[in-house]
TrEMBL record:
Organism (species): Weissella bombi
A single MF term (Gene Ontology): DNA binding
Name the UniProt record assigns to this protein: Predicted transcriptional regulator
Domain called HTH arsR-type: residue spans: 1-95
Lineage of origin: Bacteria, Bacillati, Bacillota, Bacilli, Lactobacillales
Keyword Transcription regulation listed: yes
PANTHER family, sorted: TRANSCRIPTIONAL REGULATOR, ARSR FAMILY (PTHR33154), TRANSCRIPTIONAL REPRESSOR SDPR (PTHR33154:SF33)
């Protein structure tokens, strides 16, 4: 489950703000249990137990089903990621670019792979040739088991402007046929041949529906990713604020009209678990690949 600091996440925070409900989650992490079993383990009445279960179900942390006269509860999530808003004072001017995820300029992917827009799949699944389908520009989600996709980041800087820092933001997960909440994948991101770092995705998530994922996509297919933030500065590169490579901003050639952004799952990665990229109208963040170019004016 991917959360942010917003009103939509409050039910989850409220559900977790109780030692009893935390204990219920711990019990359900081991087995499916009915109300009587939970009530006995917790040492509270069935009525109070049901009230706590209702809170957890409202927050989509558990689900319940009727088996005869019994209400049996199951834990539906195993990971919660909380994205805090980042506020950083940067004394530079900036240019913002949002690149649609279907606007890649080169690729070499292996199945499982495919593209989807708000209405359905684009072309046939698991056939890399359809990554050249003209409708790919409409894609809000793409996935591949191995290989890479590349994008061109336009360089809008003028001759009298100096590149000071560059930030990237994109929603990613692993790729597994349908989905697998525990499926690690090492996803490497580079810019113009300079590695910015590798992030290990913990899974390909379907424990809850993506906030923007269209209704036509089955619930057992990848629903959302985790928003990753990369930064290149004169101190090196970071992923979510943690040092990820020695690539510094002065390594980026500002005489070029664009820079190549590569998102890859390498053949020799420790965890070859594919990659899913979420864009507009999919996942939990209605965005493409957000790029912010920070610059200063030169005398």
């Amino acid at each position: 489950m991917d959360l942010d600091i917003s009103d939509e996440s409050v039910p989850v925070f409220r559900a977790l703000a109780s030692p009893v409900r935390v204990k219920i989650i711990q019990l359900l992490s081991k087995d499916k249990l009915n109300v009587s079993q939970l009530s006995k383990a917790l040492g509270i009445s069935s009525t109070i137990t049901i009230a706590h279960l209702n809170k957890l179900e409202e927050a989509h942390l558990i689900q319940s089903e009727k088996k005869g006269n019994q209400r049996v509860s199951t834990l539906t999530i195993d990971t919660i990621n909380v994205n805090f808003p980042t506020k950083l004072y940067i004394p530079f001017k900036n240019l913002d670019i949002d690149i649609p995820i279907g606007q890649y300029t080169s690729y070499d992917v292996a199945p499982t792979c495919g593209l989807a827009d708000s209405k359905g799949f684009i072309g046939k699944l698991d056939q890399p040739g359809y990554f050249m389908d003209p409708k790919r520009y409409q894609a809000g989600m793409l996935w591949f088991g191995q290989g890479f996709v590349e994008y061109q980041i336009p360089n809008y800087l003028q001759k009298n402007q100096a590149l000071e820092m560059l930030e990237l933001s994109l929603e990613l997960s692993s790729e597994f046929p349908f989905s697998n909440n525990n499926w690690k994948s090492d996803i490497t991101i580079s810019l113009d041949g300079h590695e910015l770092g590798t992030w290990t995705s913990p899974g390909d998530f379907s424990d809850t529906r993506g906030r923007y994922t269209p209704k036509w996509l089955d619930e057992d297919m990848n629903q959302y990713g985790i928003l990753k933030s990369l930064r290149i500065s004169n101190h090196g590169s970071t992923i979510d604020g943690k040092s990820s490579s020695d690539t510094t901003i002065d390594m980026i050639d500002t005489s070029k009209s664009s820079w190549i952004l590569r998102i890859a799952v390498k053949d020799d990665a420790e965890n070859v678990g594919g990659c899913t990229i979420f864009g507009h109208k999919f996942g939990n963040h209605d965005q493409g690949i957000k790029t912010t170019i920070y610059y200063s004016d030169q005398a």
